[in-house]
Amino acid sequence: MLDIKLKIKGMTCTSCANSIEKALSKKKGVSDVKLNFASERANIVYDPDKIDLEMIIDTVEKTGYNVSITDKKFDIIDMDCASCANTIESVLKRDERILEVEVNFAAETAKVTFPENTIKEKEIIQLIEKAGYRAKRKGEGKRENKTEVDRELEKMKKLIIAAWIGVLAMIPIGLQTDFAFITGDILPISDFTGMVILAALSTPISFIIGWPTVHSKTVKSLKSGNINMETLISLGVVSAWVAGILSFFLDLPGFFMVSSMILSFHLLGQYLETRAKGRASKAIQKLLELEADTAVIINEEGEEEEIPLEEVEVGDIMIVRPGEKIPTDGVVIEGESSVDESMATGESVPVEKIKGDQVIGSTINQDGILNIEAKSVGEDTFLSRVVEMVQEAQVTKLPIQKLADFVTARFVPTIILLSILTFIGWNLFPQFFLPILQWAESFLPWINTEVELIGLSIFAAVAVLVISCPCALGLATPTSVMVGTGKGAENGILFRKGDALQIIQDLDTVVFDKTGTLTKGNPELTDVWPDESDGIISMAASVENASEHPLARAIVKGAKERNVEIKKVEKFENNRGMGVKGIVQGRKVIVGNDKLLDKNEVDIPEEMMKKRDAYQENGKTAFFVCIDGDVEGIIAVADELKEGSEQAVRSFKEMGLKTVMLTGDNERVGRSIASRVGIDEIEADVLPDRKAEKIKELQQNNSRNKVAMIGDGINDAPALTQADVGIAIGTGTDIAIESADVTLVRGDLEAAIQAFKISESTMKNIKQNLVWAFGYNTAAIPAAALGLLHPVIAAGAMAMSSIAVVGNALRLKKIKM
User: Distance of CA 504 to CAs 8, 321, 750, 762, Å?
Assistant: First the structure.
């Protein structure tokens, strides 16, 4: 029986607790349930053989409440292949308290999901350590961790050098003892003496160097009930070394050099692969290195003081001189300058900053002194959120990775079985294998058919063990995702969910919000009818002054520019998607569309309707101004198209995507904008809360049922969430990062095109890697089983195969944006 404590959200009284208790108590396997609605805690005793934790959580949720779920991220040290990741996942998933585990071999991270308060981080780390690996909380001792990785690489480098010195010393002796049929006698020593020297050189390489790098990990994994890539290498090394010992007593070829070279090639491949993976994750490291170390602030005495960055607090006034990094996110309170924001947006052109403008931490001040009030520090800064989001994307497993994961999870035991069958097959059916060797002997110089059958069978079995490479399969997807998302981050394209990279390739339709996406999002008051009537403007602006809507702000701004008085409003009422109304100096004022006037039973003169239609046909948003029940005038607001909107829409259409625009404006305004940019379809008069429903309709109607939504990330959050891929477009620190799968920092649609380009290149790269990895193993394993590959050649091919995958992924860095 297990006793588990869950935090349940949404309980407001004892009856809530009673309903949950009743539902859980009915479940077979649950023996005791105690709930406390005040502390939101549930103590549940259950039999895991009859009911699992997911079923318990599902039962709670079906009663209308939610179990608090959390996830924690860990840095994993000592993973050498994709099988290691599978081993860790397997060990963690055995714990009943853990719901979901994602281990990314390429990023060397683990994401563990579990109900809050059921398991401690320390316990998760202990589980990982029992599996034979080391772990730390994500980001813990960030700088020290990097140093530790460097130390590990340096230590590995020394072991590799020692191993290869031994191997190089063995080569001339090995050529004489094992390849005399090719080279003849090249040393003045007997074969027996040569074998003794080879044994003396091979033993320390195979075991003294092999223990900390391979064999110890094999022992730990076997103790935890798992086998991995290390197991294959250990079996290959030990079996070759044992065969070498047996060659002193039986008529066998010397296997000592094979044993040493298998290990040496594995270590070299592991070292180069680790270095290559480091290059794949450089984008994150570069972002982290961009942080300033210190900040100059105005202290309590009013004097300038330089302090460490981590001591900066919200509200501190920072002094940033030309050429210096802006320490953290903030607002300019004094000074003017241009700021290089290329680290955030990918744009090399500096951005002018004046009083009231937001600035991003780690960007570089160019030519003026700025006084900046700190608004975000530590983990809340734009840079920290970007790093967290990119890391999150890199941990995500793409749908295309499922096949590779399925294969790698079963790869090692399958290879061990194949190796055993190869050994047995050679000894039972030599008449099948020997003719193949005799045919290949003429063009493969390492084949010697004069070797005894037992020697040939050992050669083939060992070659099968060491040529198989699950690492190439395991690395195929995550390394490409790491490089692709890193390339995006460098160009202001932030993939919050890595699977968006794949889904983008399956899209059928792309939907645009109008304001702030296709247009600049800075509307201006353009027309007033009757012409420039200050009374109309004053009344309209007075009511709109209480609204936060962009169009309302445009009307207020226009009134201020015309020096029109803005009066106090009472009984203000906002009617979403229709307009506003209120009392100004005792007069009832309504500013809105015909729906709002109909709702308030106000008749609109035909002349006014025609005037309104004329404004709308020119792409302007027009509002009636009604005072005390009579329509007194019309005000019109227009928003300019963003540069590049037409080209972006054209590019999407060239990709074969249908383009749709959603707007809260009426159909005339919508069609005017749509015709100018080339949009295929428009959905007008769509209220903000209806946009998600429209996305759902499109998903049900189109051929592939995949829809992308591009919006400002703030007002369009529900639609962005409903879309298969939500793309938030904006600028600066106010971007709603959490609302979308992809965030475009630059705030233009060209970045959206680039996001599609990165997706296309990344998926193409992943497919190339998977084809290579599957193709390599499919061709190499049968060749090894037939005896066509010497174990030393097999070990070298295995080491190089995973490096080839990582190298191909690194080509994504060269995508032209």
Answer: 36, 43, 16, 11
| C-alpha to C-alpha distance for 131 and 43, rounded to whole angstroms | 30
pLDDT digits (tens, 9 = 90+) for 454-465: 889 988 998 898
Give me the torsion for CA of 615, 621, 622, 623, rounded to 10°.
180
**Contact between 65 and 8 (Cβ < 8 Å):** yes
340, 513, 724, 741: the catalytic one is 513
Query: Which residue type sits at 585?
Result: Q
> Tokens 């380009």 correspond to what residue?
757
Could you tell me the pTM of the whole model?
Answer: 0.70
590 CA to centre of own chain: 48
Structure confidence by residue, pLDDT tens digits, 84-106: 888 888 889 989 899 999 888 77
Dist. CA 792–CA 794, nearest whole Å:
5
Amino acid of residue 56: I
d(CA 366, CA 326): 10
H helices then E strands: how many in the chain?
30, 30
Residue 513 falls in the annotated catalytic set? yes
pLDDT of residue 143: 43
Q: How, if at all, do strands 725-729 and 707-711 pair? A: parallel
On the 0-12 / 13-18 / 19+ scale of CB atoms within 10 A, 11 is: buried
DSSP strands (E only) in 207-323: 294-298, 304-308, 317-320
Q: Which residues in 486-592 belong to E strands, given as ranges? A: 493-495, 509-513, 524-529, 569-575, 579-584, 587-592
- pLDDT value at residue 285: 64
**Cβ–Cβ < 8 Å for 29, 54:** no
Q: What is the number of alpha carbons within 13 Å of residue 134 lying toward its C-beta?
A: 6
Could you tell me the sign of the dihedral formed by the alpha carbons of 398, 399, 400, 406, in that order?
positive
CA distance linking residue 147 with residue 513, whole number of Å: 47
Give the integer Cα–Cα distance in Å for 759 and 502.
Answer: 7
Q: What residues contact 775, with CB distance under 8 A and at least 6 apart? A: none
| DSSP letter (8 states) at residue 209 | I
pLDDT score of 202 more than 60: yes
Give every strand in the sheet of 109-115, ordered side by side. 100-104, 109-115, 69-77, 134-137
Give Cα separations from 550 to 405, 589, 593 (angstroms).
49, 19, 16
Three-state DSSP state, 210 = helix
- DSSP H or E segment with residue 742: strand 742-744
The residue type at 380: D
Q: What does 599-666 look like in DSSP terms, one character per residue?
A: HTT----HHHHHHHHHHHHTT-EEEEEEETTEEEEEEEEE-PBPTTHHHHHHHHHHTT-EEEEE-SS-
Average pLDDT over residues 746-764: 88
- d(C-alpha 706, C-alpha 506), whole Å: 7
Through-space distance between the first and last CA atoms of the chain, rounded to whole angstroms: 58
pLDDT at residue 85, rounded to an integer: 83
Distance CA 804, CA 788 (A): 22
| CA dist list (Å): 260 to 105, 254, 273, 740 | 27, 12, 20, 52
What would the pLDDT profile of 116-137 be if each residue is shown by its tens digit?
Answer: 888 988 999 999 988 888 888 8
- Cα–Cα distance for residue pair 327/359, rounded to 1 Å: 10
